């Protein structure tokens, strides 16, 4: 199962996320669920890093099905708005996948 942990701060802003595991719904290279989760979460990381220019902490280990993104503790008001848009869009995409493939994905919201 793929586990997606979304970390939120006391203001309910997403400050990071962690993806781990494999869905095992198909053979490696044929698994559309893993590919979809990876595409959504990696695109969000790229958006934060290259489009908005936020210096995120990014860790990834494809063999283990692991990805972790952490935002800096302080963001400008403008960067906060852009990161909210990107991360809430990511969460919407993941939630849509969850509705269709809940046997293979779990989404956990952690409040800090």
Element layout with pairings:
Elements: E1 2-8, E2 14-20, H1 32-52, E3 57-61, E4 66-70, H2 77-100, E5 105-111
Parallel strand pairs: 1-5
Antiparallel strand pairs: 1-2, 2-4, 3-4
What does this structure look like?
The chain is α+β, with helices and mostly antiparallel strands and 112 residues long. It is 40% helix and 28% strand. It contains two helices and five strands. The protein has helices spanning 32-52, 77-100; strands at 2-8, 14-20, 57-61, 66-70, 105-111. Strands 3-4-2-1-5 form a five-stranded mixed sheet, with helices on one face. The longest helix is centred in the C-terminal third of the chain and has 24 residues, at 77-100. The radius of gyration is 14 Å and the shape is globular. It starts with a strand and ends with a strand. The model has no long low-confidence stretch (mean pLDDT 93).
């Amino acid at each position: 199962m793929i586990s997606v942990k979304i970390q939120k701060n006391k203001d309910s802003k997403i400050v990071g996320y962690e993806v781990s595991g494999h869905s095992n719904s198909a053979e490696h290279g044929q698994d559309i669920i893993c590919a979809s989760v990876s595409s959504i979460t990696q695109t969000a990381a790229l958006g934060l890093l290259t489009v908005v220019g936020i210096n995120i902490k990014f860790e990834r280990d494809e063999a283990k099905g692991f990805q972790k993104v952490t935002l800096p503790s302080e963001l400008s008001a403008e960067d906060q708005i852009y990161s909210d848009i990107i991360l809430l869009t990511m969460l919407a995409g993941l939630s849509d996948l969850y509705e269709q493939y809940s046997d293979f994905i779990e989404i956990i919201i952690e409040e800090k």
